Amino acid sequence: MATILVSLHFLIIFYVSNIPLAFAQNENQFIYNGFRPAKLHLDGSAQLLSNGLLQLTNIKNISSPQVGHVFYQFPLKFNTTSTGSTLSLSFSTNFVFAIVPEVPSSGGGHGMTFTISPSWNFIHAGGNQYLGLFNSSNDGLPVNHILAIELDTILNPEFGDIDRNHVGIDVNSLNSTELAPAMYFSNKEGKNISLELTSGNPMHLWIDYDEAEELLNVTLAPTRIPKPNWPLMSKHIDLSLYLLESMYVGFSATTGTRAPSDHYILGWSFNKSGQAQSLDVSKLPSLPRQRKTKEIPRLMIMVFLIAVTLVLITITGVAYIIRRKKYEEIREDWEREYGPHRFIYKNLYKATNGFSDKELLGAGGFGKVYRGILPSSNVQIAVKRVSHNSKQGMKEFVAEIISMGRLRHRNLVQLLGYCRRRGELLLVYDYMSNGSLDKFLYSNEKPSLSWFQRFRIIKGVASGLLYLHEEWEQVVLHRDVKASNVLLDAELNGRLGDFGLAKLYDHGTNPQTTHVVGTVGYLAPEIIRTRRATTCTDVFSFGAFMLEVACGKRPVGLQGLTEDIILVDWVFECWRRGAILDASDPRLGGNYVVEEMELVLKLGLLCSHTVPAARPSIRQVMQFLDGNANLPELPDGSTFFGTFKGNEEHDYLLSLPSSSGKGSAASLSSTDSILINGR
């Protein structure tokens, strides 16, 4: 009997001790539109306010750095269990936060994080730049098993920060595996818009992880708009390498005595087994009224302002009028009709550190290009400063502004604005962090691109060229398609740039121009003879570009010490021998999709046909690349790079797929002769 009572007592104790764990296993999702009540664990400076607002740091009467943590009180199952069963790593969460600095618009720090951790005990974690998660001795250690999404408002060079206003993905370390300036994609305007984390305004952050695709998406936006279509960051990462079976989810924040900030969480939704529920913004608690600086009597302010104004008018009045007339920026009628956003010269000067040589990205016939960071938004830009001795002048400058300012395509470099002052011409573009494609193809300083990346770049440039030729309100001839004019963004997507040579023509008219421009090796042979550029000549340049990317060779280059090699002739010879894959870039090491490589090489030859009408239109090129049309067989022997005999050319043209797009193939007289590379 005593034995039975002891066993029963043990079972009761075991059952009671495991109630919280059983309850935690069922708590796979939750939502808080305000935190009253809430199943949360708070420590440090964190506190729950009476209106349901969660405050992580409090700068009221602050005398030392503060650290605040808030975690959901039950652990969640994230990885393979000890019994060997498999758990899904996928999760979804979104929350509304606000960072309110002590002095509005002054910035503050250090920042806050959303954290997944094996414990809520961070007693040994440091404050300030360590964000309450790590310290100098354990930062970067694999045993941390911590995933954090940081909202950082202080520039810490020791952690590789890009600025004082960014979002980062941290794995076991504050050296983020992915960083991006704080901004959001506007679904309405179709572009990224910057956000200031320390604005004091509530903002919404979404974090979604898909275990099947091993993809972590982070999306940021103001609370007044719905979730953007494009995330701020997308990172391929296998979280099974970092997360344990039982993990806690929550937040951490730190602030120092210098430029301190309050950190708030207004609402939080989490789901471990599906999409997290959307927060009801209308039900979220209100933030406290922002603090005001020391009050100064209104009368004193008015007297001070009047006195300062009178002094400034008296001392600088005449000088201001003269200076304004002397340096007044030029504004013409076309700018009001076509001009995009106009930048102030002073801002561009500061952004580029006075157009410092340290910020120089490159130089060409159209001038020098500098990297810059706009002081107002911390957005990186590229500024093209036209040199005074440029052979191209105002006419080309105006053409580029008119065409680029209104073009919108994901594979075109976006023109953000311009500036004209005292004879200086400046264009402001999106900054492409990876520079031009030719540096990856030919420079030993850059890593070699994979075939997947190259094929994606080819299709992207083709899509941008299709937009220029057929999908915009006017036909735009690029006239200089080549690898050095293709820029790569942070994800190595290709974007076609440098529209200084572009010409606009109304659809339905003859899209030709008689001014011969371009680069040797990419110029169609008929330009030399007729001095006319068309959509067909752009296709010819694109054909040379495709061969260049696939082969890793320039269209015209030295072979040995003296002999020139013509790339299209060499690829054609490889095809004629039945070994077209021999033309592929040796740096690929044979790692490519054979069908795609053959398609690109043959399509490059087809676009390089010396008869313009025998070339496919750019729409047909896209059909071939997308696999929506079969590439016709290339003509045998000299009939491709020689003189067609009989009706071979006519039959070849008829073999091309029909297209309603402009620049499609048309039959020619059988007596027309075809030159080889203009010879």
TrEMBL record:
It is a single-pass type I membrane protein. PROSITE patterns: PROTEIN_KINASE_ATP, PROTEIN_KINASE_DOM, PROTEIN_KINASE_ST. Coiled coil: none annotated. Keywords: ATP-binding, Cell membrane, Glycoprotein, Kinase, Lectin, Membrane, Nucleotide-binding, Receptor, Signal, Transferase, Transmembrane, Transmembrane helix. It comes from the Eukaryota. The keyword Cytoplasm does not apply. Residues 355-641 form the Protein kinase domain. GO terms for cellular component: plasma membrane. Residues 658-679 are annotated as: Disordered. Pfam families: Lectin_legB (PF00139), Pkinase (PF00069). ATP binds at residue 384. It is found in: Cell membrane. CDD domains: lectin_legume_LecRK_Arcelin_ConA, STKc_IRAK. InterPro entries: ConA-like_dom_sf (IPR013320), Kinase-like_dom_sf (IPR011009), L-type_Lectin-RKs (IPR050528), Legume_lectin_dom (IPR001220), Prot_kinase_dom (IPR000719), Protein_kinase_ATP_BS (IPR017441), Ser/Thr_kinase_AS (IPR008271). Residues 1-24 form the signal peptide. It catalyses: L-seryl-[protein] + ATP = O-phospho-L-seryl-[protein] + ADP + H(+); L-threonyl-[protein] + ATP = O-phospho-L-threonyl-[protein] + ADP + H(+). Residues 658-670 have a biased composition (Low complexity). GO terms for molecular function: ATP binding; carbohydrate binding; protein serine/threonine kinase activity. The chain crosses the membrane at residues 299-322. Belongs to the leguminous lectin family. In the N-terminal section; belongs to the leguminous lectin family. This is Protein kinase domain-containing protein. It comes from Quercus rubra (Northern red oak). The lineage of its organism: Eukaryota, Viridiplantae, Streptophyta, Embryophyta, Tracheophyta.
